[in-house]
User: Which sequence fits this backbone?
């Protein structure tokens, strides 16, 4: 006897709070187009809810500008300089969020003027990512002076000097998270970070060449540190001393590659292999899952 078909309900009948929770997980291009192309009114309303705009990811600028053009009439990135176009989108985001944006991830060409705009429109900003490698210290510090609720930031190594970071420490009492993009971090740079931001709990410096002395400096001087990510290099400065000092951390991510990409020590499962031709248990399980996924797709 055939079972009666299960009655289906339209997506439009989802509760508004649930739709908003979905919108918080989509990118800014989809939010700007109303949640999705040709979305129903309930989805468009959810995409305009201030809660959906508390975290704004603008790093994918190409998708963002094409999504804005698809959303309707407005300045095209081909006619408006990217700096002005970004300012316009930030203004729109701040308006939709009713000034309550908590995190903004900016594209590579963003500068201190965009950060100043955020400081004026969103003084309760908790986190920003500003990858620009050319920054004016005075304007950057002026923006920081308005962001008293700031808890973290991701910046280029050009901003890692004592005066700038100490200014962050003075203006932002809750600042505990720092991510740095740097090719090389020596003990001197590590000392600057430790001395100016002694209350750091989370520090990320991925894909950077770093000697053991710099790593030990972080572990010895940052007494409140809980999370340290120094993963991504091809050669490792991890020693038994480093591992012992890092054992107090909740999370420690470090390099797990050796020369041609073979695993020696894995910071995820802790396995150690003398023979680099033998992958660790973590990698074996990963390869098995990949194989199973491939077999499933093939069937």
Assistant:
């Amino acid at each position: 006897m055939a079972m009666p078909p299960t009655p289906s309900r339209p997506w439009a009948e989802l509760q508004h709070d649930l739709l908003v929770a979905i919108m918080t997980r989509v990118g800014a291009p989809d939010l700007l187009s109303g949640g999705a192309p040709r979305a129903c009114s309930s989805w468009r309303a959810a995409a305009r809810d201030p809660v959906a705009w508390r975290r704004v990811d603008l790093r994918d600028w190409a998708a963002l500008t094409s999504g804005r053009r698809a959303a309707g009439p407005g300045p095209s990135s081909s006619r408006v300089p990217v700096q002005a176009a970004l300012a316009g989108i930030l203004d729109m985001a701040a308006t939709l969020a009713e000034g309550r944006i908590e995190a903004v991830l900016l594209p590579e060409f963003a500068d201190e003027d965009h950060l100043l705009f955020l400081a004026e429109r969103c003084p309760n900003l908790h986190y920003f990512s500003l990858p620009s490698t050319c920054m004016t210290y005075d304007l950057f510090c002026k923006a920081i002076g308005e962001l008293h609720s700031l808890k973290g930031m991701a910046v280029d190594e050009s901003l890692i000097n004592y005066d700038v970071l100490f200014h962050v420490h003075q203006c932002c009492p809750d600042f505990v998270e720092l991510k740095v993009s740097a090719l090389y971090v020596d003990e001197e740079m590590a000392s600057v970070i430790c001395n100016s931001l002694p209350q750091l709990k989370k520090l990320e410096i991925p894909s950077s060449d770093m000697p053991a002395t710099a790593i030990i400096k972080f572990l010895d001087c940052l007494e409140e540190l809980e999370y340290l990510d120094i993963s991504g290099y091809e050669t490792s400065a991890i020693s038994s001393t480093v591992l012992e000092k890092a054992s107090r951390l909740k999370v420690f991510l470090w390099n797990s590659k050796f020369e041609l990409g073979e695993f020696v020590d894995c910071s995820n499962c802790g396995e150690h292999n003398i023979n680099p031709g033998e992958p660790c248990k973590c990698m074996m399980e990963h390869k098995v899952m990949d194989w199973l996924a491939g077999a499933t797709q093939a069937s």
Remarks:
- The two ends are 29 Å apart (CA to CA).
- Confidence is low (pLDDT under 50) at residues 69-79, 257-264, 272-277.
- DSSP finds twelve helices and ten strands in the chain.
